[in-house]
Amino acid sequence: MPLIEEEIVIPEGVQVEVSPPALIKVKGKLGELVNDLSHTRASIELEEGKLRVKYWGRGRRAKSMLGTIKSILKNMFTGVSQGYTYKLKIVSTHFPINVKIHGDTVIIENFIGERYARKAKIVGRGTRVKVQGEDIIITGIDKQAVGQTAANIEMATKITRKDLRKFLDGIYLFEKRVGME
């Protein structure tokens, strides 16, 4: 079976450690991320200022796996050097929505007049959530954790069995950007 490989340049100010089979530790000015990519069956080697990713295979599937690994590594580099910020908007037309953060949970009260509170989990240790008026701001260095936290909050306010043209209430993602706020 043929071998395809790709080189990824490590940016300035980022230190990378690779442990066999594919445990990656990335350190930067904002913190440290660890990711285990051994399930991909790729070989990742550290060379002078570069990561060499090798994958045994051919065709679209092998190229897509190599592209996925490359994206994960680049997102880790960006996260530890700049961070990520996602913003969500609280939209309420019928009843005012109250949003509170308690530990690793976002509590959404009075959503469309419901008596019970809806809850969304905050994923990752370094993910921070704060409420500023009608906005919820999620920041962190792990793009996957920040994105999953935003998705959890959005899904907690998903409306079913109502006319979505009339009931616009919910919490919706409106901005994604690189950089901590």
TL;DR of this structure?
The protein is 20% helix and 43% strand. With 181 residues, the chain is of the alpha+beta class. A 4-stranded antiparallel sheet has the order 11-12-7-13, with helices on one face.
What does it look like?
It is a single chain. This protein is of the alpha+beta class. The chain has two domains: 3-81, Ribosomal protein L6 (Outer Surface Protein A, domain 3); 84-178, Ribosomal protein L6 (Outer Surface Protein A, domain 3). Helix content is 20%, strand content 43%. It is built from two helices and 13 strands; from the N terminus they run ββββββαββββββαβ. It has helices at 60-81, 143-156; strands spanning 3-9, 15-19, 23-28, 31-36, 43-47, 50-56, 84-91, 98-102, 105-109, 118-121, 128-132, 135-140, 170-178. The strands form four sheets. Strands 11-12-7-13 form a four-stranded antiparallel β-sheet, covered by helices on one side. It has a three-stranded antiparallel β-sheet with strand order 1-6-5, with helices on one face. A hairpin with a 2-residue loop joins β3 (23-28) and β4. The N and C termini lie far apart (47 Å).
Q: What is the CATH superfamily of the largest domain?
A: Ribosomal protein L6
* C-alpha-based Rg, rounded: 20 Å
**What is the level 1 CATH name of the largest domain?**
Alpha Beta
Mean pLDDT: 93
Structural class: alpha+beta
| Secondary-structure element pattern, one letter each | EEEEEEHEEEEEEHE
- Total number of helices: 2
Query: What is the CATH architecture annotation of the largest domain?
Result: Alpha-Beta Complex
CATH topology of the largest domain: Outer Surface Protein A, domain 3
Multimeric state: single chain
